[in-house]
Amino acid sequence: MKLLVVDDSSTMRRIIKNTLSRLGYEDVFEGEDGLQGWNILNQNPDINMLITDWNMPEMNGLELVKKVRADSRFIDLPIIMVTTEGGKVEVVTALKAGVNNYIVKPFTPQVLKEKLSAVLGVAL
User: Fold this and answer.
1) How far is CA 19 from the centre of its chain?
2) Are 120 and 79 spatial neighbours (Cβ–Cβ below 8 Å)?
3) pTM confidence score
4) H-helix or E-strand containing 50?
5) Superfamily classification of domain 2-120
6) What does the pLDDT look like over 22-38, one tens digit per residue?
7) Torsion angle of the four alpha carbons 84, 50, 44, 2, in this order, in degrees rounded to the nearest 10
8) Is the Cβ–Cβ distance between 80 and 49 less than 8 Å?
9) For 89, 92, 100, 107, which has the most beta carbons within 10 A of its beta carbon?
10) pLDDT-derived band of residue 13, with 50, 70 and 90 as boundaries?
11) What is the mean pLDDT of residues 95-115?
12) Helical ranges in 71-120 per DSSP H
């Protein structure tokens, strides 16, 4: 399974990648902003999941989610948003834009595991 992690923080990308690796996911692409994430997704349309931050330069995560959902190739791509934006309005906005699940930073590896499991519909 191929996953794409998009976050402008290299530390956060590393934390997510390490957690994914412990869960057995080794095929992980990284992008440091929404624009780079979008380009990686277009070059690798067989990516199976997108994990994105909200607040990033160039193209933010919400813009990325909307762009992904507007493209018929990625209409069913599972998306998890990982962000510091934890207010009810932000969560509803992200869900309406098309994210499948939402994680508020800071989070534990267990929370990421649970959200991945819920989105993928498999026990991890």
Assistant:
1) 13
2) no
3) 0.94
4) strand 49-52
5) Response regulator (3.40.50.2300)
6) 999 999 999 999 999 99
7) 120
8) yes
9) 100
10) very high
11) 93
12) 88-97, 109-120
Instruction: Give the burial class of 88: count Cβ atoms within 10 A of its Cβ; 0-12 exposed, 13-18 middle, 19 or more buried.
Output: exposed
Token pair belonging to 66: 């909307």
Which amino acid is located at 108 in the chain? T
The number of residues in the chain equals 124
Two tokens, residue 6: 């998009």
Q: Which residues of 16-44 are buried (b: 16+ CB within 10 A; e: fewer)?
A: bbebbeeeebeebbbbbbbbbbbebbeee
Residue 12 structure tokens:
């956060």
Instruction: Compute the distance between CA of residue 111 and CA of residue 35 in angstroms, rounded to an integer.
Output: 27
The two structure tokens encoding residue 53: 């931050």
β-sheet with 79-83: strand ranges across: 27-31, 2-6, 49-52, 79-83, 101-104
Amino acid in the structure at residue 98: G
